[in-house]
Amino acid sequence: MFTIKTVKGDITKITDVQAIVNAANNSLLGGGGVDGAIHHAAGPELLAECRTLHGCETGEAKITRAYNLPCDYVIHTVGPIWNGGKNNEDKLLTDCYYNSLKLAMENDIRTIAFPSISTGVYHFPVERAAKIAVKTVCRFLQENPDSFDLVEWVLFNDQAASAYETEVSLIQK
Ligand code: AR6
Questions:
Q1: Could you give the CA distance from residue 64 to residue 43 in angstroms, rounded to a whole number?
Q2: DSSP letters for 118-131
């Protein structure tokens, strides 16, 4: 059995997962939002390891250690920048979730926390993002039974919390 849940809070403070996912940019060299918070909390060694990765394509994922964060790993993925919705944004956001889970599974990670990828600076509409996020996680868990014990979203604001809570409650009916 696995748990899918949402919590409101700061992903850098989460203590019940082995890995947190970072909503990064193509450089993987830090930025604002959740990316800035993760680099700040992890410390400069995270940036040093990220420099060795030579960036990341949109929709792909790369893994590092977590340094001063309470978890063991950070999975860095790059969400799409919203550009009206007809420019492959849905597929690229799907890829972010799928590839993050695949990379986690390959590293024997059984507990993972996501932020609301792309819905901040990248302006992906949050209700649409939440639907894609929950649908993709469910598909991955169906295709890979026994891969995870816990998948959670850590939401930083009320609008995101409400959108993901709604989608998670629909699958639990
Ligand atoms: N914990 C959880 N969620 C957070 C936190 C936190 N500590 N801080 C912000 N959020 P964003 P994006 C929420 O902009 O849209 C960066 O500069 C935030 O409220 O962080 O994928 C990167 O370097 C929002 O709901 O990521 C890229 O350049 C969600 O995280 C760019 O932003 C995502 O917002 C990526 O943009």
A1: 13
A2: TSSTT---HHHHHH
ipTM of predicted complex: 0.99
pLDDT digits (tens, 9 = 90+) for 85-97: 999 999 999 999 9
CB atoms near residue 5 (< 10 Å): 15
Residue nearest to atom 12 of ligand 1 (CA): 118
What number does the ligand 1 atom closest to the CA of 33 have? 20
Question: Which residues have CB under 6 Å of ligand 1?
Answer: 10-12, 23-25, 31-35, 37, 79, 115-122, 154, 156-157, 160
How far is the C-alpha of 47 from the C-alpha of 43, rounded, in Å? 8
Q: What CATH number has the domain bearing residue 102?
A: 3.40.220.10
35 exposed, middle or buried (CB, 10 Å; 0-12, 13-18, 19+)?
A: buried
Amino acid (1-letter code) at residue 79: G
SS3 state at 8: strand
> Would the pTM count as exceeding 0.95?
yes
Distance CA 43, CA 38 (A): 8
User: What is the residue range of 46's domain?
Assistant: 3-171
